[in-house]
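Technical note accompanying the year-one report. For the benefit of new consortium partners, we illustrate the data format agreed upon in the data management plan: each record pairs a sequence with a structure-token string. No post-processing was applied to the example shown here.
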Amino acid sequence: MDINYLVNILLFVFVGWFVYKRVAPVKSLRNLTDEQLRGKLKAPENSTLIDVRETHEYSSGHIHGAINIPLSKLKQSLTEIPTDKELILYCQSGIRSKQAAKILQKQKYKDISHLSGGIASWSGKKIRGNG
């Protein structure tokens, strides 16, 4: 067995592990469909909807009632996030919202859901701007 073959196998394993960690299910994170999220938005006092995309993505179109806390600023913004409500996270495709959920779980947040497939799976109206 030559060294190139071994390096290629190790590289393949590393890339596979990296991809898996990005898309793997997050323990105790509830996945919401578009329809399930619509139901939860009918009682907005029970939850906080957080868009974890960057500010320019948020202003290009977001779900009504969402607050923007980019994943890149999540750890510094924990004081803005209530601990007594369900947190519903979303991003563009669902990957960053899973990462955000992991961060929040480490900070002892318990009641967390995310929009499966992100805003790309949202069939409802999107609000433009920062309002």
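Partners are asked to follow this layout when depositing records. The first strand starts at residue 30 and ends at 32.
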